[in-house]
Amino acid sequence: MASPQLENGYFRIANEIIDQFCKSKNRLSGEEWIILWIILRKTYGWHKPEDYISLSQFYQISGMKKPSIIRALKKLEQKRIISKKANGKINKWQFIKDYHQWTLLAKQLIVSKTANPALAKQLHTKDTITKDIYIPKTMKKTNSSSFGEGDEPQINTEGEEVTPTTKASTPVFKIMLWAEKQKGKQFTNRGKQMEHLSKAFKAGYTAKEISQKWLDMSEEEFWLKNGFDFKNVATELDRKL
Fold first, then answer.
1. How far is CA 23 from CA 16, 78, 99, 181, 221, in A?
2. Which pLDDT tens digit goes with each residue over 96-109?
3. Pick the CATH number of 9-101 from 3.30.70.20, 1.20.120.450, 1.10.10.10, 3.90.226.10
4. pTM to 2 decimals?
5. CATH 1.10.10.10 domain position(s) in the chain
């Protein structure tokens, strides 16, 4: 049984910073939080403002894959939460405690109803996602890989499993329709989108995880500028699909 004790080590962090971490506007992805806490542990944990941290150290502590580590570090840099001093093979990392410098994006895209009434009607926020997307409550990572496209278990509003009757009733198709509402238009390559979604399900991801990754990506400036689809979402989920 774990029994952490302060005398075995701890680090101090101002409550004001913790308060900022708790704000919804400063929401980070799971990968970003892991990397941020590693940097805090390696700096504040040793009473230092900055320290050299190699990719191998990030890996040893987190167990994350190298592309995921690099991606999370890049995102945190772009958001001005951490800073880097390049020095050969090992970079020096620092947490930026001046949260006024943080440049996190807004949680949702605001669309003027007068500018585009049709699109404003179709766009949804994170608060309404559960009303519009089918999320199978009983889908587990241990058995989702056995599902084929079209035979995923269907769960009604009472949490009871029912027999699927059409392709449109599958989680794959439900998520795709939901994403099209987010985009405000239909995919031109629906078959490919369903293929990538099916692979994500078979890799063990649930509808909720896939849709949340879509929402996370939709807030990032890079994807807002360049556009994305479920191929990018599957890649960002960091599984070899």
1. 11, 19, 12, 28, 20
2. 999 999 987 544 44
3. 1.10.10.10
4. 0.47
5. 9-101
